[in-house]
Amino acid sequence: MEGLKAINGKHEHVKFDAKLGSTDEANALIATRRKSKEIRRPSITLSREFSTTSTASYSSSDEEDDISPRDKEQRNSKNFSDFCIRNIKHADFGRREIEIAEQEMPALMDLRRRAQADKPLNGARIVGCTHISAQSAVLIETLTALGARVRWCACNIYSTQNEVAAALAEAEYSIFAWKAEEEEEFWWCIEKCISADNWQPNMILDDGGDLTHSIIKKYPTLFKGMKGIVEESVTGVHRLYQLAKTGKLSIPAMNVNDSVTKQKFDNLYSCRESVLDGLKRTTDIMFGGKQVVVCGYGEVGKGTCSALKGLGAVVYVSEIDPICALQACMDGIRVVRLSEVVKTADIFISCTGNKNVINRDHLDKMKNGAIVCNMGHSNTEIDVASLKTNDLTWEKVRSQVDHVIWPDGKRVVLLAEGRLLNLSCSTVPSFVLSITHCTQALALIEMFNAPEGRYKQDVYLLPKKMDEYVASLHLATFDAHLTELTDDQAKYLGLNKSGPFKPNYYRY
Ligand SMILES: NC(=O)c1ccc[n+]([C@@H]2O[C@H](COP(=O)([O-])OP(=O)(O)OC[C@H]3O[C@@H](n4cnc5c(N)ncnc54)[C@H](O)[C@@H]3O)[C@@H](O)[C@H]2O)c1
User: Fold this and answer.
1) Looking at CB atoms within 10 Å, which of 138, 139, 298, 425 has the fewest?
2) Ligand 1 center to residue 245 CA distance, Å?
């Protein structure tokens, strides 16, 4: 498994340069080093600040080529060339990856089959900016099967699966993305998706808000012909609400992040299923009896704790919110301040969506061999920047694994440079992404087909009935049989027999 190899077959030591104050300076140094071939890829990458859901996912072909895809002329087997990806030759491998994902995304495939005849997205021209993985390829191909035309780029510089991008290009998708894009290339790819001959997008599917932001800044007139924005991430949604509040949102937007079928499944169950995988692949650690501190007991923290407890770890939680803290108590977990266990715990996992939750003071006090990682969206939950001082040495021991070494020889094991552990070091379950992508597809269908005036220049949640529909599509996989309300019961509860079954304020 490539994720377990040491970079370039040997360990890299990097003494941090205290002068690297800014990201720009750091990137400039990295670029110079790359050019001089001093190192192929720096062990500490200070590239684009990760936004919202910004993640890096596991890809099997990440460091194959030093030539920027922008400098290559590529055509697919049908002579199509409106794309920019790492290597079109890997299309067959990527197609197999997509087919494997389809197997675990039965509900999205079912939605594709059910709606294919109606073509509810006929006439939709969707510009998309998401992670480019086998699972998102299933979404892209579903949208096309439902009648949409699309152009697509990556919402994150690291998360593209190159072979999947190749498969999409081979299938004549205009796709602009490769793993490990430079900052400037990232924005170039977005630009290529927005503007092209004979192309004027009328829908946006965004994850993080960078695409929407680009259109606002450079192509505001495009909004005139647009029907809506569908946004997936916490940060992107936050930006949209700010725009709406200041009267600057010129078209309707749908917040899919807060759909129940996204939040309760992606955040809770997906993390429960993937956190151990990320830790295992990078450290080979055994969990039984290990003391683990999980910072934050929201959805992600709950999933993380549940997985760890299942394998016999001794779990502690730190929380700021008394309700979540009490929930942890009820689940039999000790609630502590980080400072109480910082010297003794074996593993630290941040799951808060906050910043500097694990700071340099904590890191200074940890014991030799302590493992530190993050499951929250941004790479600032652990104050990684505070570890970039002259007194500490960084040693890259494996892909996504750095040892940070103190002057007395103490080593702290930092995973994925503080970025999302599961998306950087393992995979996330396709089934969960089927739920998330169904939600996105339905949000696009809803906005595209909504009668004039249903949605104004504001941010909306997906109608509850659609949330319930997404869930019901997935029940068939488990041969789960829903109970139907009797007429009498429906009357008693004041419900329609076909839903929605809960009010919007219900918390699940
Ligand atoms: N890794 C993944 O696959 C994945 C999936 C979904 C979401 N996320 C990200 O994970 C983060 C958490 O998501 P969530 O749905 O659990 O959010 P949430 O709001 O439900 O939970 C976060 C919890 O952290 C607590 N918290 C905040 N600051 C804290 C601090 N300083 N110390 C201790 N606790 C603190 C909050 O009180 C809250 O209970 C977000 O950044 C989200 O974007 C990651």
Assistant:
1) 298
2) 24
